[in-house]
Amino acid sequence: MRDRELVPFDNKALHSLSEADPEMKKLISLMGDIPLAIGNNHFESLVKSCIGQQLSLKAARTIYNRFQELLDEVTPEAVLTLSDDTLRSVGISKQKASYIKDLSSKVLSEEVLLNTLEDLENEEVIKTLTSVKGIGQWTAEMFLIFSLGRTDVMSLGDVGLQRGCRWLYQVGKEEDGKEMLKRLSSNWDPHYTVASLYLWEAVNRGFTTNYSCIDQAIDDLN
User: What is the CATH number of the domain that holds 190?
Assistant: First the structure.
């Protein structure tokens, strides 16, 4: 069983974004379709997020793979059998160990009901998840997108989004990143996640470092 399902965005969402935002239209046209990869295991997704905090993608993946090798299956019961020393041996700090153990305990005690999150509104999901030690606003927002597949999530504090947005709209660093996203994302309502995925992809593909603006990228790649 694949741990992620690739779900394409509705063409209506892409059309709506393109109609409302000329710069986003250029980015969508340049990149084509980008599916949303949705995780199938809520508990494992949250554990992975906790372990990967403040790490590069490569480092996070390496540590998580080592962590997985300690267990037959990543479950709350299995996580709680691991000592801090064992977790430290695969690169998980004492602080992060406390995060994943708090999550495991709250899931087992049913203080956090992961199987009911899909029925909750975005803000209720965020409130539930941030009751867990080590899970903040950003982690909860990423869960909404990459585990629940919500297409109306705007993560104002995401550094990657801010970087992509400054590049696409040619915004100087003098403007606060959150305020910039709040201002520009008014054109994306309600398709915030769709726009976010294209901005993240612009960063991931190196557009923001290799090209001074979207028009230069279009000229070079088309």
Answer: 1.10.1670.40
> Backbone phi, then psi, for 113, in 5-degree steps?
-100, 95
Judge whether 4 lies within some domain: no
Contacts of 169 (CB under 8 A, 6+ apart): 23, 180, 184
Q: How far apart are CA 36 and CA 26, in angstroms?
A: 20
Into how many domains does the chain fold? 2
Say what angle helices 192-204 and 22-31 make with each other, to 10 degrees. 60
Q: What is the pTM (predicted TM-score) of this model? A: 0.90
pLDDT in tens, 62-102: 999 999 999 999 999 999 999 999 999 999 999 999 999 99
Pair 203, 160: CB distance under 8 Å? yes
Q: Are residues 47 and 79 in the same domain?
A: yes
Indicate which residues carry an active-site annotation. 158
Residue that finishes a domain, picked among 102, 137, 172: 137
- Ordered DSSP codes for 97-134: HHHHHHHHHHHHTTSS-GGGGGGS-HHHHHHHHTTSTT
